[in-house]
Amino acid sequence: MFASISGPRRPSLPRAARHARRLAVLATAAVALAATGLAVAATPSSAAACNGYVGLTFDDGPTGSTGALLSVLRANNVRATMFNVGQNVQGNPSAARAQVDAGMWVANHSWNHAHMTSMSQSQMQSDLSQTNSAIQSATGVRPQLFRPPYGETNSTLQSVASSLGLRQVIWDVDSQDWNGASVSQIVSNASRLQAGQVILMHDGIQNTRDAIPQIMANLNSRGLCPGMISPSTGRAVAPDGTPPPTTAPPTGSPTTPPPGGGCTATATFPNVWGDRYNTSVTVQGASTWTVVVAVTAPQRISTTWNGTPSWDSTGYVMTMRSNGSGNTFGFTTMTNGNSSARPQIRSCTAG
Ligand SMILES: [Zn+2]
Description:
The protein is α/β, with parallel strands linked by helices. It has helices spanning 14-36, 66-75, 86-91, 93-101, 121-139, 155-163, 183-190, 206-221; strands at residues 52-61, 81-84, 105-108, 145-146, 167-168, 173-174, 198-202, 224-226, 228-229, 236-237, 264-272, 276-284, 289-294, 300-305, 308-311, 317-321, 328-334, 344-350. α2 (66-75) packs parallel to α8 (206-221) and α5 packs across α6. The structure holds zinc ion (ZN).
């Protein structure tokens, strides 16, 4: 997972509480939706030229406004991945079915959005199994992807998920919709998406729905299309699962990337402890590179490896340059009380 840092932030600690409170409200609202039912037809497929794919994800549903979300997605020819909460699916199976009928992929976001890293292995196992069962019985689809609530994970949780056939997927870009972001802020955050990457959004938020047409206009202008998240790689691929098209290199420059060209940096979080966590960032598309990473205050990066770091005046934005140690660098971040935020990759530049 990543959390974005873009300008001044409110204190971050209420994230979990805010999230939990909203879930309770949404669970109640879901009952209303069940009564009204949903009328959703098959999704028309878009034939736009795609240079790459991104994964749009909506967490915490189904909710009382899942039908409204699906209408917006269909109107914009979007197929997205819905990370559903098991008990919401159980309470409103018709909304989960409507997601699939609208062309969405359904995935596992735990049974009731608990902090799973404090569970025992067997608790994790039953939580994820119960959620898989609810989704499968509502939709006929067995989930292949899992996103831990709050992006909080550890090696036990990852191995439990894996044993159930679930690929863990966090995110590359945080829309900040859960944090009260405006429509324009959500659109701006989404504009950082690069091919293969995944963005975190939520079911049940009006600003998120209102941002979708502008998000799609931005993606289309950059030749990016909404895709599915590959259960084997966790990256966004074409909706039918085929890898993205390879573009022929420009004549006369067969192998050398243009100076200052792009690359892709992908972060994972292999270790999470009570007071700190490790981030591992792998760069693709360049052998020498500069990656800019931001952490969320009051978190602080304490140690780095396999790169040469420099810092902006705030100390929260790190520019990491390759130093001949390969294409994966890492760093340790002290949470300083904010255990939920994760670093955001702002850019990857070749050379
Ligand atoms: Zn969630």
